[in-house]
């Protein structure tokens, strides 16, 4: 049942990150990690760590956080703990949404009823799901308010994606995209931008119809870029690539949180962000995949109000000013302004390309250049890590 809108939502945050487990010697994916690896992780982290669809993956999730500092501490602890345990099994932890050179057809999916059902239903489409992501939950207790803000927040999804791009390589090839992950994920049903609903009741009617028809078991099978969580009273932002650098993850989570509160402030003042058609937002979604946050003649996202392409850095400044009151409220001004650092030094995708290009120009073979990319990713996954191997 919906609660009164008169009380401001808590806007707590929770962050889920998916990682690759790689063999320390080959830097290829660990196709069949020892069963005790996950057990050891759970002994240290409990329910904050879990398996993922592929055996070569592991997922971590923070507890409910009320500040960016709290989220940072938990992410640091989880990354460090899982990496340390992986090291005992001659593995390393790697944060990127695609592995630089791994092959999907040599992987194994995790055993269990849920994963076996997905594998049986989706067949080769899900066999290719060699991707990792980051999900940010924002606590909004009111059911109808979650649906209302979901429709408005969709506008900003490409802007968030552009800050996180970390999947330029696929099966050893440069895709030409800043993030190839969504090109893989979009082959699944019920993905992409969320639908627009007028109320929580309307949303539930649609979900319940699919459940009644036997198409899905519950709302967790809606894999939209932004969705109401089926387990908690949160909006879950799912469009982001997993960030190689932890500070980038904290930044994007903080911006997501502040955007939700900014939209709530508009509502409180009898205003709202304009809801644009999915056709338009989808165009920016593609541009974020293709160009990310990089500067250039053809780059940038469309400003729908001006009907023109605007450099991403300019749009970012507008967003920072929009949400500055919210960042001040939450005490995370430094975290949202870290986005400027991301723009200046580049996302993980840009840095991966730079490392690959530099290695080749210095005489490395394409394979050795990809190994250099993997080493960089491993070294930057865990804060304070000095060496990948």
Write the layout of secondary structure elements.
Blueprint (H helix, E strand, L loop, with lengths): L12 E11 L11 H11 L3 E3 L5 E5 L6 H21 L2 E4 L18 H10 L1 H4 L6 E6 L3 H11 L3 H6 L6 E2 L2 E2 L6 H5 L5 E2 L7 H13 L10 E2 L1 E3 L5 E4 L8 H23 L9 H14 L9 E3 L4 E3 L1 H19 L2 H13 L2 H14 L4 H16 L8
Helix pairs in contact: 1-2, 2-9, 9-11, 9-12, 11-12, 13-14
Brief overview, please?
The chain is an alpha+beta fold and 389 residues long. It is 46% helix and 13% strand. The chain has helices at residues 35-45, 68-88, 113-122, 124-127, 143-153, 157-162, 181-185, 200-212, 246-268, 278-291, 312-330, 333-345, 348-361, 366-381, and strands at 13-23, 49-51, 57-61, 91-94, 134-139, 169-170, 173-174, 191-192, 223-224, 226-228, 234-237, 301-303, 308-310.
Uncertain parts: none
Oligomer: single chain
Instruction: Name the helicity range.
Output: 40-55%
Give the number of DSSP strands.
13
The H-and-E topology, N to C, reads as EHEEHEHHEHHEEHEHEEEHHEEHHHH
Report mean pLDDT, rounded to a whole number: 95
Q: Biggest sheet, in brief?
A: 7 strands, antiparallel
Distance between the termini: 52 Å
Q: CATH class of the domain at 110-130 and 139-381, anyone?
A: Alpha Beta
Which geometry do the CA atoms define? globular
> What is the CATH architecture term of the domain at 110-130 and 139-381?
2-Layer Sandwich
Residue share in β-strands: 5-15%
Radius of gyration: 20 Å
**Do you know the CATH topology of the domain at 110-130 and 139-381?**
Creatine Kinase, Chain A, domain 2
Number of helices: 14
- By secondary-structure content and strand pairing, the structural class works out as alpha+beta
């Amino acid at each position: 049942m919906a609660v009164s809108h008169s009380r401001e939502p808590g806007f707590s945050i929770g962050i889920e990150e998916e990682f690759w487990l790689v063999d320390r010697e080959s830097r290829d994916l660990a196709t069949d990690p020892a069963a005790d690896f996950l057990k050891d992780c759970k002994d240290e982290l409990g329910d904050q760590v879990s398996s993922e669809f592929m055996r070569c993956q592991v997922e971590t999730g923070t507890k409910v956080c009320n500040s960016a500092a709290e989220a940072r501490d938990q992410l640091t602890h989880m990354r460090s703990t899982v990496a340390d345990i992986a090291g005992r099994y001659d593995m390393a932890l790697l944060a990127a949404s695609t592995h630089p050179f791994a092959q999907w057809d040599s992987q194994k999916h995790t055993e269990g009823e849920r994963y076996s059902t997905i594998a049986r239903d989706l067949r080769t489409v899900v066999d290719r799901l060699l991707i990792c992501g980051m999900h940010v939950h924002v606590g909004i207790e009111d059911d109808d308010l979650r649906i209302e803000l979901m429709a408005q927040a969709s506008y900003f999804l490409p802007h968030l994606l552009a800050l996180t791009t970390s999947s330029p390589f696929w099966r050893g090839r440069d895709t030409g995209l800043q993030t190839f992950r969504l090109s893989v994920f979009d082959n699944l049903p019920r993905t992409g931008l969320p639908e627009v609903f007028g109320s929580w009741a309307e949303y539930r009617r649609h979900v319940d119809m699919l459940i009644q028809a036997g198409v899905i078991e519950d709302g967790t099978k809606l894999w939209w870029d932004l969705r109401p969580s089926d387990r908690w009273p949160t909006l879950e932002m799912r469009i982001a690539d997993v960030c190689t650098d932890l500070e980038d993850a904290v930044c994007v989570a903080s911006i997501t949180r502040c955007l939700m509160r900014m939209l709530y402030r508009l509502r409180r003042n009898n205003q709202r962000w304009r809801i644009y058609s999915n056709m338009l937002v989808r165009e920016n979604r593609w541009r974020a995949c293709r160009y990310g946050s990089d500067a250039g003649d053809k780059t940038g996202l469309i400003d729908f109000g001006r009907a023109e392409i605007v450099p991403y850095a300019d749009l970012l400044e507008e967003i920072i000013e929009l949400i500055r009151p919210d960042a001040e409220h939450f005490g995370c001004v430094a975290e949202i302004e870290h986005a400027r650092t991301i723009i200046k030094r580049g996302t993980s995708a840009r840095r991966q390309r730079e490392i690959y290009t530099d290695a080749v120009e210095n005489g490395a073979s394409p394979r050795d250049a990809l190994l250099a990319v993997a080493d960089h990713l491993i070294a930057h996954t865990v804060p304070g890590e000095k060496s990948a191997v």
